[in-house]
Write a structure and sequence with these properties.
It contains seven helices and nine strands. It has a five-stranded parallel β-sheet, sandwiched between helices. It has a two-stranded parallel ribbon with strand order 1-9. It is elongated, with a radius of gyration of 21 Å.
Length: about 230
């Protein structure tokens, strides 16, 4: 049985792409490319707040967001405040608190932040809000909804090629649109390779219960799945 994480698979694809770019640039090393712009750091740092209900040390969703904002701070010199493990009932008050504290940009990570952001944003028209995996928009609100099903399609195809039982599994957290997209991409990728592939899907309705995830995974393995996402 093989268990592979989505982030690791996408990272591998990214490494391959990066190598191709490096080789291409090396071929033209005698003609260095000049940057077409320069970035001057402002005297007063732009204040960015990054908030999530995930954990920064989860090795996945929360960690990716945290690392991205740290890179933004390092590259652009923004003032960064980060907070994780925000309880869902506290989302509204968390947004209001950081807005009152003078944030210029609030990045909220997670589909469940969408509606609270839309409710809070009109009170703070000079603050920009961004919702990762959100489906909401307003005059000062934007959503970023990554096409995660494209990466999971490739994982599904890989799973179908590696499976010896023609049965694979998917264990998800909540039934949020982006999670469903991941599951459907995985399923379609597997069936693209083998139309008869059986895909077992289980939603835990919880992102923070490893024991429940283990139980679901073992149940899928006992049902014949030899590749899990």
């Amino acid at each position: 049985m093989t268990i592979i994480g989505k982030e690791k698979a996408i990272t591998c694809l990214g490494i391959v792409a990066a190598v191709a770019v490096v080789l291409t640039l090396a071929a033209g090393a005698g003609h260095p490319i000049q940057p077409y712009y320069s970035y001057a750091q402002p005297a007063t740092p732009f204040k960015v707040v990054f908030v999530t209900d995930a954990k920064f040390n989860d090795g996945g969703w929360g960690a990716v967001g945290f690392n991205a904002t740290q890179a933004m701070k390092s590259k652009y010199g923004v003032g960064l405040t980060s907070a994780d493990s925000i309880a869902i009932p506290d989302i509204g008050s968390t947004l209001t608190g950081y807005a009152d504290a003078g944030a210029n940009l609030i990045i909220a990570q997670g589909f469940q932040w969408g509606d609270p952001v839309v409710k809070v944003a009109p009170t703070y028209p000079d603050i920009k809000f961004v919702v990762m995996t959100g489906l909401v928009n307003a005059s000062n609100v934007a959503s970023i909804f990554p096409m995660q099903q494209q990466g999971s399609f490739l994982l599904g195809a890989l799973a179908a090629m590696m499976s010896k039982t023609a049965t694979i599994g998917f264990v998800g957290g909540e039934t949020y649109p982006n999670i469903i997209n991941i599951a459907e991409g995985y399923k379609q990728g597997a069936k693209f390779i083998n139309p008869n592939m059986k895909v077992i899907s289980t939603y835990l309705h919880d992102f923070n219960n490893p024991a429940k995830g283990r139980e679901a995974a073992l149940a899928q393995i006992n049902s014949g799945a030899d590749f899990l996402l």
